[in-house]
Write a structure and sequence with these properties.
The chain is mostly helical and about 70 residues long. About 70% of the residues lie in helices and about 0% in strands. The protein has helices at about 1-5, 10-20, 25-30, 35-50, 55-70. The longest helix has 15 residues, at about 35-50. It is globular and about 25 Å long. The model has no long low-confidence stretch (mean pLDDT about 95).
Length: about 70
């Protein structure tokens, strides 16, 4: 999660909401109060920073666990 925390955007918060919404773009963007395109940009940025795709269930599970342990 370290690369996400170094960003000026709240990428860790964005990731948390995205995962809480089970990857539902509309629901996550509404909860974050941002446009869906902005959410897509942030998710792409997260994927670039961690070098993994959020399309993969294993990646989502690992990141969810990391976010829970980070609290």
């Amino acid at each position: 999660l370290a690369p996400l925390k170094e960003s000026t955007l709240d990428l860790a918060g964005t990731l948390r909401v995205f995962l809480e919404c089970d990857g539902n773009w509309s629901e996550a963007s509404a909860r974050l109060e941002i446009h869906r395109h902005t959410l897509r940009y942030r998710i792409r940025k997260i994927e670039e920073l961690i070098g993994r795709s959020l399309e993969e269930t294993g990646t989502r599970a690992e990141l969810w666990l990391a976010l829970q342990l980070d609290n």
